[in-house]
C-alpha cells in the first residue's frame, strides 16, 4: 500500500513547483538578466563602459576578458544541473568587482558593496530553488 508524503518543498504547490521555488526562479532570472546586461556592456563597450573601466584602472581590452569570463559563468549558472558551479564562479567574479571598487575608493554602501548585495541575492534565489543546499553549509537538518 503506497502512502503519499509531503515535504516542505511540495507544500503549497502551484502545479509541480512550490511558491518558494517560483520566487527562487524569479530572483535568479532578475540576477541573471542584470549579469547578462553587464556581459553585453563589456563585450560591446559603449562609452559608459569604456569610462567606467578606465576609472577602475583597467585597460579597455580587459573588458572583453571580464565579459567573456562572466558570460561563461552565467551560462553555467543558468543550466540547472551546473547552477551551483556557475554561482561559485559568479561569486568569485563579484569579489573581484568589490576589490576593484575598494582600490579606487568608491562609495562603500552604494557602489563597492553592490556586488555583495547582488551575490547574496543570487544565492538566496538558488537556495529557494534548491533548499537542499542549506544542508551543505549546515543551516538545515
UniProtKB/TrEMBL annotation:
UniProt-recorded name of the protein: DoxX family protein
GO cellular component, one term: membrane
Keyword RNA-binding: no
Keyword vocabulary terms for this entry: Membrane, Transmembrane, Transmembrane helix
Localization of this protein: Membrane
Keyword Acetylation among UniProt keywords: no
Source species, domain of life: Bacteria
Amino acid at each position: 500500500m503506497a502512502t503519499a508524503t509531503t515535504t516542505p518543498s511540495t507544500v503549497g504547490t502551484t502545479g509541480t513547483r512550490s511558491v518558494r521555488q517560483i520566487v527562487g526562479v524569479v530572483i535568479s532570472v532578475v540576477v541573471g538578466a542584470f549579469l547578462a546586461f553587464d556581459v553585453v556592456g563589456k563585450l560591446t563597450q559603449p562609452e559608459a563602459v569604456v569610462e567606467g573601466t578606465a576609472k577602475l584602472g583597467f585597460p579597455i581590452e580587459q573588458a572583453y576578458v571580464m565579459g567573456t569570463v562572466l558570460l561563461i559563468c552565467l551560462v553555467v549558472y543558468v543550466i540547472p544541473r551546473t547552477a551551483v558551479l556557475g554561482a561559485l564562479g559568479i561569486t568569485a567574479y563579484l569579489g573581484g568587482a568589490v576589490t576593484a571598487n575598494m582600490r579606487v575608493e568608491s562609495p562603500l554602501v552604494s557602489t563597492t558593496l553592490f556586488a555583495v548585495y547582488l551575490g547574496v541575492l543570487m544565492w538566496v534565489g538558488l537556495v529557494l530553488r534548491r533548499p537542499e543546499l542549506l544542508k551543505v553549509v549546515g543551516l538545515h537538518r
